Amino acid sequence: MERVKQLAAHFTGPSQGRAALERKSPDDVVITMAIRSPLCKAKKGGFRDARTDELMLEMYKQSIAHSNIDPSLVGDICVGTVLTPDAMYAARSAAIAAGYPDTVPVQVINRFCSSGLMAVTTIANQIRSGQIEIGLAVGVESMSENPDKGGPAQSELISVNPAACDCKERMGWTSENVASDFNITRAEQDEFAATSFQRAEHAQKSRYFVKEIVPFTVFQKDPSTGERKRVVVTEDDGIRPGTTLEGLMKIKSAFPQWGNGTTTGGNASQITDGAAAILLMSRRKAEELGLKILAKHHTTAVAGVPPRIMGVGPVYAIPMALKNSGISSNEVDLYEINEAFASQCVYTIKKLEIPRDKV
């Protein structure tokens, strides 16, 4: 009878509001494990000498250690990654080396900056459709091994289209376009960045990240001998203690040749090496296995925007996600806007009128 009630509710359409969103159902797609590596400065930080496949191997090992399930129960693994120089053979070989049996398949997805999020969505949709019961979503990137060099050369058949030609331009250019097109000032960007650094410093000192960061054992080269030695990295190394608005205002423009030159190394994200993984399954399966449920995945929304202002995607995707979820903006407690430049975050906040204390 309970199952009949659930089906009846499903076919009469989605309920609206936060209470409906928080209602529990055996068919919910839930997260039972969420872990990440430390996030390290590319070329300079703890993972500067670690290869992409080594980061992946360690992420897989940690996922097995923290999942509290037999790895053979995983129905599929989806790895989100962007800047790899060749086909991602390592996605499967590293999984096997880490201890996943060869019965567990692996796929790779690339939607640039949101590749890790799309890995989550892919696994969630597979569970929701009944294709698998349990899945692992992974995100990994080594900017030390595979630095962003901009888009590749285009065929003349493509580059004759101005919008298509914009796809190969650098991200700094898109940040300056957003700032100039939407009147986002240098002062607004620096203010946002200062708050972000200060919050990150407070979070690290208060040990907020302890439950999500897992130690990573990687190789580092001895600068004097070149020998690769094993080291254990346990903390983010890119947080800048003592950052102030006054200090950020003194930093020179990173791209004075574009727009108003308001983007700097202080109000843009660092180039980072790191990895993360989450385990997803139905609520029914999680309860059957006696696992702690951390969160529920409800929906994902994606939106296309002109390549020259690619960072404004959240302005369009957030309302779509809210509509899909049947809730209003003011019912959300916390927004996390994962854009690389303060210009893009500030524009999103202003355009959608999101209270700053919710970001």
Automatic annotation (TrEMBL):
Domain of life: Eukaryota
Keywords attached to this entry: Acyltransferase, Transferase
Domain Thiolase N-terminal: 29-283
The keyword Transcription regulation is assigned to this record: no
One Pfam family hit: Thiolase_C
Catalysed conversion reaction: an acyl-CoA + acetyl-CoA = a 3-oxoacyl-CoA + CoA
Gene Ontology molecular function: acetyl-CoA C-acyltransferase activity
Pathway: Lipid metabolism; fatty acid metabolism
GO BP term, example: fatty acid beta-oxidation
Domain Thiolase C-terminal: 291-359
GO cellular component terms, semicolon-separated: peroxisome
Record family assignment: Belongs to the thiolase-like superfamily. Thiolase family.
NCBIfam families named in the record: AcCoA-C-Actrans
Protein name: Uncharacterized protein
Species of origin: Tricholomella constricta
